[in-house]
Design brief:
This protein is mainly alpha-helical. The chain has five helices and no strands. The longest helix has 27 residues.
């Protein structure tokens, strides 16, 4: 390669490397936006609302209405026909029970009919926080 072409190639490569370094420095100096926790209301609409109502004026769906779920005895929503497993459920819904339920419904209540499972604790926590507001 003649010297002139070689010098031109080195100059172009140097300019490119300089530009890349400037970009890397700029990116390193920009703070990343803080991650926002998942929004329980939006998550509920995306993942739960097709089966559960959250307003007493809404018609019954596949699952029970979740108004006042926190503090309600399991299997006792008025007007909803529960699966057989709920006949033996002897607890009140609280944050821990809801968390276990959302993680694996059948492990909490054998014979329960709910296909939804949520493995991510932060998603379960956001959903539970939203359900605690339903009055």
């Amino acid at each position: 390669m003649p010297m002139r072409k070689w010098c031109a190639a080195v100059a172009i490569a140097g300019a490119f490397c300089g530009a890349v370094s400037a970009i890397e420095i700029a990116q390193a100096q920009l703070p990343l936006p803080a991650t926002r926790p998942p929004d329980g209301s939006s998550l509920f609409k995306q993942q739960c609302a097709s089966c559960h109502a959250v307003n007493l004026s809404e018609p019954q769906r596949q699952g029970p209405n979740l108004v006042n779920i926190v503090g309600r005895p399991a299997g006792k929503a008025a007007g909803f026909h529960y699966s057989a497993g709920f006949a033996t459920a002897d607890f009140v819904w609280d944050e821990n029970k809801l968390d276990a339920w959302l993680a694996n419904p059948q492990a909490l209540i054998a014979g329960a009919i709910m296909p939804y499972r949520q493995a991510r604790p932060e998603i379960r926590s956001a959903l539970i926080a939203y359900m605690k507001e339903l009055h």
